[in-house]
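Ligand-bound model needed. glutamine.
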Amino acid sequence: MLKVGVLALQGSVSEHIDMLSRIEGVCPVEVKTSEQISEVDALILPGGESTTMGKLLVAFDLQSSLKKRIIDGMPVWGTCAGMILLASKLLPEAQTHLAVMDICVKRNAYGSQAGSFETTALIPSISPQPIPLAFIRAPYIESVGEQVEILCKIDNNIVAARENNMLATSFHPEVTDDDSVHRYFVGMIGKS
Ligand code: GLN
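Prediction:
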């Protein structure tokens, strides 16, 4: 069984656990300690509030062990606030983040609550069918480094990208009924 963790400090944890439990061969686990970080085969950084999550990473002394595992190649997927944590550069730049992925991310890029919306898009690397995309006070990626593959753009803004073992999405597949991004992420294990 592949142990796929969801960082469970704050945010939409149970929705990711439910999605992962649909995938055969995957054992989903909530992750709260450095020891648990060292035991998983891959980790999801969920959506929520990135400033709070950044503070909790520092308060629970998880920042360096998490960063080290990602740099050593553990597959990681940041959804929304999780994507903000992965980014090397933030607009505005005023909070703790892991700074591991070569992307520049604009927070609350669609405005606040009113900026939440749903759409669908075809993301050929992820699914042969269009999938539903749910944006909740979402960031988007302003620019990417050379090693980063852009997976999806909506209205010319980058909303999904991959750099080796790191996947980032502005949107929340875990609140839809479609598990193809979760399956794509599990497929990254052992290949990065
Ligand atoms: N706006 C939030 C932040 O900046 C992210 C929202 C989300 O994860 N749904 O952290």
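The pocket of glutamine is lined by residues 47-50, 80-81, 84, 107-108, 136-137 (CB under 6 Å).
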